[in-house]
Amino acid sequence: MATPSVNPKMEYRRLGNSGLKVSVLSFGSWVTFDAQVDDNLAVECMAAAGDAGCNFFDNAEAYAGGKSEEIMGHALRELGWPRWSYVLTTKLFWGIHGDVPNMRNTTNRKYLMHAVDGSLERFGQDFVDVLYCHRSDPETPMEETVYAMSEIISAGKAHYWGTSEWSADEIRAAIDIADRHHLHKPVTEQSQYNLLERRKVEKEYARLQEDFGYGNTIWSPLASGLLTGKYRDGIPDDSRAALDGYGWLADRLTNPEEVARVEKLRPIADRLGCSMAQLALAWCTKNPNVSTVITGASKVSQVVQNFDTLDVIPLLTDDVKAEMEAAVKK
Ligand SMILES: NC(=O)c1ccc[n+]([C@@H]2O[C@H](COP(=O)([O-])OP(=O)(O)OC[C@H]3O[C@@H](n4cnc5c(N)ncnc54)[C@H](OP(=O)(O)O)[C@@H]3O)[C@@H](O)[C@H]2O)c1
Question: For the segment 287-324, what is each residue's pLDDT rounded down to a tens digit?
């Protein structure tokens, strides 16, 4: 039976303090699935990631209003991988039923219980491996959310749970509540982290990582493509910045100061003989508190190039890393 390959070059890291092993480079579907990647291309992209040893596939209820989970579920069936061979994740918070009470911008018990069932139905799966609260909800008592997430695990609908873009204080409070009530604790964050966006992961979460070994499955490692250097000469037609509805992102991706900052990395990539994308992805893997770097791609060629970063990681000595950090320093 075909499974994602176990690539000897791939490092499998523990997801935080849990026993779950995840490939240090992984694959997610934000923006791409549905808008740029259809059913067939999703199968090809996930096959390419699986061939490179990727075992972690990330999604969210809100991506493409639920369509992204359907596309990934379809791809997993097409690929025929046994369920034990991969880690499937999704995230709940924003809701997909419009502006109705209890089904939008919340992690209350009612929403979480309905939403997890909806995600599983769209995936065509009995459980996900990691279920995240996609954001924190200041209007729901932390105890209610922690109890609900823990019960979802006890019901077998998820194996682990995590947070995404929560504050360190909120995560600490959730762990504390779970500890006191013998509930399942969250094991990982999912935060933005890349060469241009470092503060939260490196500073705010430092104590959490030290005290609890809290994991992090980081997102936008290429700052949505900015770190590939592709926006040097404007917006390519087939890029994220050219998509309808992403004008807010296009402004950042084409900001002359940001583009100039990124260009300082080009000579380093040239010297190492790799692409700027690979350089930026390799840098993310060098942080030992990063459990996995979730990559995104609109094309199979990008998936292949991004996973070939495994050959670049050994080239990133401490000196090269320091040189990169100095190059983009504001
Ligand atoms: N928890 C959260 O709040 C949150 C938020 C965002 C994302 N995420 C997760 O993190 C994953 C990754 O985020 P992301 O997609 O923003 O990652 P990213 O690596 O910063 O950006 C990926 C995009 O960059 C471009 N790209 C990728 N590789 C390239 C290459 N080698 N050469 C040229 N262009 C390349 C592609 O866009 P184009 O080809 O269209 O230009 C691709 O879709 C998401 O899929 C999702 O699972 C989580």
Answer: 999 999 999 999 999 999 999 999 999 999 999 999 99
Residue to mutate, 105, 294, 304, ligand 1, most ligand atoms under 8 Å from C-beta: 294
Which pLDDT score, from 0 to 100, does residue 3 have?
83
Report the pLDDT averaged over residues 118-129.
Answer: 98
Q: Whose CA is nearest to atom 7 of ligand 1?
A: 219
CA–CA separation, 143 and 174 (whole Å) = 7
Strands 12-14 and 21-23: antiparallel
Ligand 1 centroid to Cα of residue 211, in Å, is 30
Residue 158 CB neighbour total at 10 angstroms: 25
282 touches 11 (CB < 8 A): no
Average pLDDT, the chain: 97
DSSP output for 125-189:
-S-EEEEEESS--TTS-HHHHHHHHHHHHHTTSEEEEEESS--HHHHHHHHHHHHHTTPPPEEEE
- The SS3 of residue 26 is strand
Which residue from 31, 91, 89, 90 is spatially nearest to 55, judged by alpha carbons? Answer: 89
26 pocket-lining for ligand 1 (C-beta < 6 Å): no
Q: What is the pTM of this model?
A: 0.98
User: At 37, is the secondary structure helix, strand, or coil?
Assistant: strand
Q: Going from the N-terminus, what domains does the chain have, and what CATH number goes with each?
A: 12-225+276-328 (3.20.20.100)
The pLDDT of residue 4: 84
- Which residue type is seen at 260? A
* Ligand 1 proximity of 106 Cβ (cutoff 6 Å): no
What residues are labeled active site?
A: 63
